[in-house]
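Quarterly update from the structural biology core.
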Amino acid sequence: MIQDFLNYLRHELYRSDHTVEAYERDLRQFAAFFCADPAATFNPEEVTTPHIRRWLSILADQGLSPASLRRKTQSLRAFFRFLCRRKLIPSNPASAVVLAKLPKPLPDFVRDADMERILEPLPADAPLTALRDHLILHLLYATGLRRSELLSLTDLSISHLQIRVLGKGRKERVIPIAPQLASEIATWQTLRDQTWPNLPEPRPIIATMHGAMSAPNLEITIKRLLRTEKAGRKSPHTLRHTFATAMLNGGADLNSVRAILGHASLATTQIYTHLQTSDLKRAYTAAHPRAAGKSGSESEEKN
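Predicted structure, tokenized:
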């Protein structure tokens, strides 16, 4: 039954390989817990809510984070909901399990001034891979693409100062790009084709000599390029956060940013308004004489 569910995720809901693998890990782990005897067959009909709560409690005692506990609960909910819809079980035993509460940290991002410094033009004789890596940063910062969206870009998806992106759930959206970025893409394509003429069609924009760059290599590249910046978790998503923050700080409305990012809900985009508020609070606390308990006389003494 687990395999049927994974096939459903992959072929009917078009979930990414990364997402399907995460579901599989969670479900196999729960099945191993439920079947104390390794030789026994996992029967979802026998699972009850107390079984799931006991499993999650053990994982919590082992130090598993609230985020991971929450994801595992959601994996079980989705699996048993699938079985209910197929009328293979009468009810969903995971539906009554309360999701672990998450802290609400603000997303990491890179300051505009730092990004402009990183994106200074490279010399004409820069190595091919350096030109590609510069384009990676420029694309992510200028468009807010997800990692998978960036790696799936091909020559066919870019034209007329627009990028056509196939996002989550195979939903297509069009993102405008500036002439400067379009020119960098065109220059890179020419150099790429001269150096690696045998790349398969359609040719990936973010390419290596063997084809499209892998997701792990992209992560390593981003961490290396941003290693001196003050962002907590250096990743392609850091630049997605950076894009959204820059757009809102520049006066873009939430709906426009939501559409470019491909968020299904406006609530997801609103976290970046909280980020702006956090910046304002820090500036206020640092500058105003009454903000941090400083008296007016103390402020005058400093001036």
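The longest strand covers residues 162-166.
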